[in-house]
Design a protein that fits this description.
CATH class: Alpha Beta
Strand content: 25-35%
Number of strands: 5
Oligomer: single chain
Strand order of the largest sheet: 3-4-2-1-5
Structural class: alpha+beta
Length: 117
């Protein structure tokens, strides 16, 4: 499977199973921009998670979508009082990507990694 025919979602979790980083690359299929359901679903899930985390005061967040087919963000420092909220967002995000991957198995590949800390 080449990067041009699927979307790869790389998720990095910290030691508390909280989203540390996400990196999304590629495009699924030959449909024109805005016409691919799998790509749209992945993008919408990631952007919603980003905006939900961004709206919480006390959490540092950075990210970018520098070009079509590339989107990333990273959760920096957060206070321990936000751990449970971030775990819930992370669980929802992973479940959403899992559903998209199940519905479009040839279009979406998800990889989950854990940080050492």
């Amino acid at each position: 499977m080449s990067e041009s025919d699927h979307v790869t979602v790389q998720i990095v979790l910290d030691s508390q199973s909280v989203l540390h980083a996400i990196n999304i690359t590629g495009h699924a299929g030959n449909e024109k921009r805005g016409s691919n359901v799998a790509c749209g679903a992945v993008t919408l899930l990631a952007k919603t998670a980003y905006e939900t985390i961004r709206d919480v005061r006390g959490i540092t967040l950075q990210g970018d979508a520098p070009e079509p087919g590339k989107l990333w963000f990273e959760v920096g420092m957060y206070r321990t009082e936000y751990t449970e909220k971030l775990q819930s967002i992370t669980e929802f995000l992973i479940k959403g990507f899992t559903v998209v991957q199940r519905e479009y198995p040839e279009a979406v590949q998800m990889v989950i990694q854990y940080t050492g800390g």
